[in-house]
Amino acid sequence: MHYFVSALFVLSVATCAMAYSDGAPAEVCDDMTPKHPFEPRKDKFPYTVAISKTSLASGQETDITISGKDFKGFFVQVRKGNKAVGTFTTNPKEVRGVKCHGTANSAATHSNASVKKSITLKWKAPQEKGELEVYATVAENGEIFWAKHKVGKITVK
Ligand SMILES: *[C@@H]1O[C@H](CO)[C@@H](O)[C@H](O)[C@H]1NC(C)=O
């Protein structure tokens, strides 16, 4: 048991040091800020986030594409108020889902820390209608990252 607990501890410290090589954990659901031992950057967000459809019906999908300079990690949510809503399509190679605020796959993160030029996420609108906001955290690497940027709006009608 002791061995198990300390092995877990070593594992989590190692994971942290590698800056979430397999994506962000659920602990970051609220502030969308990686618990790396560095502060988020305050300068201009250097990425473009394109939303293919900003007005859609419940159950319809839109693409959300991050591009700009190369990056390794991301964490994206579409929020109603402070709550992540809707669901992202996941795939084992590129996109891992995170259960935030009670909904499985309501946040999307990287599944590995390879260098990416862009990533296209598919997000499905929830049953609940309303005005939603898209937030993105993007990490160039474990030290350099921009957290919880409001990058667009989506209306579910
Ligand atoms: C790592 O991620 C990249 C980009 O998201 C993907 O193309 C690649 O297949 C992934 N590698 C593995 C081993 O899953």
Automatic annotation (TrEMBL):
Pfam family, one: Reeler
N-terminal signal peptide: 1-19
Domain Reelin residue range list: 6-157
GO cellular component: membrane
Keywords annotated in UniProt: Signal
Organism superkingdom: Eukaryota
Name of the protein in its database record: Reelin domain-containing protein
Organism per entry: Henosepilachna vigintioctopunctata
